[in-house]
Amino acid sequence: MRVLLHAIRGFYLRMLARLPTGELHTCLHEVIIKAGHCYGPMDPVSNIILNAVWYDAAFPAAAPPPVLDMISPRILARIESRSMYGLISFLQSRYHHLSEHEIVQCLFLCLLR
């Protein structure tokens, strides 16, 4: 699971590097924390951005979020864990015969490709 979390962290770091700094500091950080998951129809980095933008469009903030200089490592770890457990939960609901350990192994093998 740690290797899987490490790979997911890489996806989030690549996503943070791709986003414009101004929008990340002013508005995108909050929606990334709420809905920036790495699963979806595209590659993981694009899924994080797509999910965050969709959430922002579907549920706009009532008030503008505060300006932040960074997303703390603790919050980033929480987002990564949510993405990993979301992937595992989805696969468990789809493939009932697989244990959590087997699903983590399958996800790990997908990372190697």
Can you offer a commentary on this structure?
The protein is an all-alpha fold. The chain has one domain. Helices cover 73% and strands 0% of the residues. It is built from 5 helices and no strands. It starts with a helix and ends with a helix.
Tell me the span between the first and last alpha carbons.
17 Å
Give the strand content. Answer: under 5%
Sum up the overall morphology in one term: elongated
Biggest beta-sheet profile:
none
Radius of gyration: 15 Å
How many DSSP E strands?
0
Total of DSSP H or I helical runs spanning 4+ residues: 5
Q: Tell me, rounded to a whole number, the average pLDDT.
A: 88
Order of helices and strands: HHHHH
Organism: Oryza meyeriana var. granulata
Domain PIR2-like helical: 7-110
InterPro entries: PIR2-like_helical
Protein name: PIR2-like helical domain-containing protein
Secondary structure: elements and pairs:
Layout: H1 2-18, H2 21-35, H3 44-58, H4 73-94, H5 100-112
What labels would you give this structure?
PIR2-like_helical, 113 residues, PIR2-like helical domain-containing protein, mainly alpha, 0% strand, single chain, 5 helices
Short description:
Residues 7-110 form the PIR2-like helical domain. This is PIR2-like helical domain-containing protein. The protein has helices at residues 2-18, 21-35, 44-58, 73-94, 100-112.
